[in-house]
Amino acid sequence: MQLARTQLSQWLFVLILLSSGFVHANTESILFQVPHNFPLSEVRDRFVPGSNDDSVPFISLLGEAMGQVTVMVNTTNAQLGSTTYIELKDLQRDETYQIKTCWSAIHPVSIDDLQTIIIPRSTEFQGTTSDHARIVVAFQMVPDSYPREHAMVPIQVSLITTKLAIPVDIYPILVVIVLLIAGLVVTRAPHVLNDLLLKF
After folding, report:
1. 103, 156 in Cβ contact below 8 A?
2. Which of helix, strand or coil describes residue 95?
3. In Å, how far are 6, 30, 53, 70 from 154, measured between CA atoms?
């Protein structure tokens, strides 16, 4: 009986590991709070292109607690070290968010100077203008190897709402941990109680 329980616990642990899916090896993250007086737009911000350049990529949290976008960053000598910008849309005042960048370990690069920038209204930025103030996340990619590789590296950027100072994407993990602890308590409680009774 004890052997069966041990095997069940081992299979449960393996199942949790497999269900967690693919995890990027490299991660950089920051927390930021939207100012209480930040002028939010009533409708989703739309760009008015000021040139032939593509619009700045964006992440929207309209009706969502988290969102993400994947951007391809060029690692050639001409592009390496240039800044990548992503706009953050549909945020709430006084809310704290986590910005997380992830990329595969097969690319010997690092993310540097991860930060948020506020762009005033009617200010041209990356070939675009807006009638509303904007918040963008900016970062640079720097090489970690020599010679430098020449590739397009996919960088996954996530914007995650925090509740009680904890990013909401961690809550499922906390629930699993609580359930595992509860399961251990339930399965072990009769044995512990029996041992205590035998001592008296």
Report:
1. yes
2. coil
3. 41, 19, 20, 6
Residue type for position 73? V
> 């292109």: which residue's tokens?
49
Q: Rounded to 5, what percent of the chain is helix, strand, coil?
A: 25, 40, 40
Q: How many C-beta neighbours within 10 Å does residue 158 have?
A: 20
In terms of Cα–Cα distance, which of 70, 77, 73 is closest to 159?
70
| pTM of this structure | 0.71
Cα torsion through 134, 141, 157, 35, rounded to 10: -30
- Per-residue pLDDT reduced to its tens digit, 102-127: 998 888 888 889 999 999 988 888 88
